[in-house]
Structure formats: structure tokens, C-alpha cells
Amino acid sequence: MPNFLDAIKGFGVTFGTMFKPPITEEYPEKPGPVAPRYHGRHQLNRYPDGLEKCIGCELCAWACPADAIYVEGADNTEDERFSPGERYGRVYQINYLRCIGCGLCIEACPTRALTMTNVYEMADDNRSDLIYGKDKLLAPLQPGMRPPPHAMAPGATDDDYYLGRITPSGGQERSDPGHRSSEEVAG
């Protein structure tokens, strides 16, 4: 008797869905919405004045279990400054043939330079095109940003950049009257 009831339940599911209209997705022509927290393609972010957030520390490469990230750091000079501080990521590559989308690289980044976007269409017919360099990973320049290399905002320190006190025009924001710079604290 129990086998007969199980068969009736199974047929009930079949008959219940048999008369519903089919759901057709028109994917390539009309891509559907993506969940807001979906982890897709990586992006290297910038500060509001255009300097890069990546400091070339290579922590993301060390955290990657698939060994998909390659970072080569270099020193900033006063003539060529790509990021605040001493170093910047001169070479940054992500091999999407290896990337498993785990997000451990995002967690390891101390400056929030690396984040993941909602872009999910990364298929290609050429293997070498799936190795993304800085040219594909860097966030586009927004209005008011200057392309690096350029000097830091006048009077700004590394701490001002890391604490978000830089405006898009490259000025320094002093909303905290009790703020002391690192030179004032050390002296």
C-alpha cells in the first residue's frame, strides 16, 4: 500500500506542473538580473583622485588556493607615483582559467584594492585572453579623477588615503576636528 501512495504523490507533482506555462529565458539577447552580492569578475579599485589602491603586497596571490594571481610590486618615486605609500602593483594578472571564484583574495587585501563585480560573462575562445592584466582589471577613471602617475593630494598622508579623507578633486577632507596626522602623533 505505501508504494501505491508514493506513486500517486509522484503523479501529483507531474500533473501539477504539466499545465503551467513554460519559462523561457532569452539569455544572450536579454540577460537576466544578477543577485547584488554575486561574485563575478575581479576589479582593482582606485582612490577618488585616481591613484590605485593596490600596494603590490602580494597577499592576494598568497591567499589564492588555485595559484591564479600573479603580482609584481615596484617602488613609487616622487616623479612616478601610482599609489599612496611606498609601493604599487606594477604587474597584476589573474588567470581565469584557474580562478575558482572563492573570494579569499578579497579577504586578504589590506587596502580593499581588489573586489569582485557582478560581471559574469568571461568566456572566450582563446586561452591567452583569459589572463586578465591591469589594463582589464583596473576600475575606469570617473569624472574628476586624474590618471596616474601623479602626486598625492597636497598635504595628505598615507593615512588620509587609507581612511577615506581624499575627495575626487584630489583635495583633502577634514571632517574630523580632532584628527591628528601621523607626523603630529609621532612628534
Automatic annotation (TrEMBL):
Keywords: 4Fe-4S, Cell membrane, Iron, Iron-sulfur, Membrane, Metal-binding, NAD, Quinone, Repeat, Translocase, Ubiquinone. It is found in: Cell membrane. It comes from the Bacteria. Residues 143-187 are annotated as: Disordered. Residues 44-74, 90-119 form the 4Fe-4S ferredoxin-type domain. One of its GO terms (molecular function) is 4 iron, 4 sulfur cluster binding. [4Fe-4S] cluster 1 binds at residues 54, 57, 60, 109. Its main location: membrane. One of its GO terms (cellular component) is plasma membrane. GO terms for biological process: aerobic respiration. Residues 173-187 have a biased composition (Basic and acidic residues). Pfam families: Fer4_7. The keyword Metal-binding applies. It is a peripheral membrane protein. Gene3D superfamilies: 3.30.70.3270. Belongs to the complex I 23 kDa subunit family. NDH-1 is composed of 14 different subunits. Subunits NuoA, H, J, K, L, M, N constitute the membrane sector of the complex. NDH-1 shuttles electrons from NADH, via FMN and iron-sulfur (Fe-S) centers, to quinones in the respiratory chain. The immediate electron acceptor for the enzyme in this species is believed to be ubiquinone. Couples the redox reaction to proton translocation (for every two electrons transferred, four hydrogen ions are translocated across the cytoplasmic membrane), and thus conserves the redox energy in a proton gradient. This is NADH-quinone oxidoreductase subunit I.
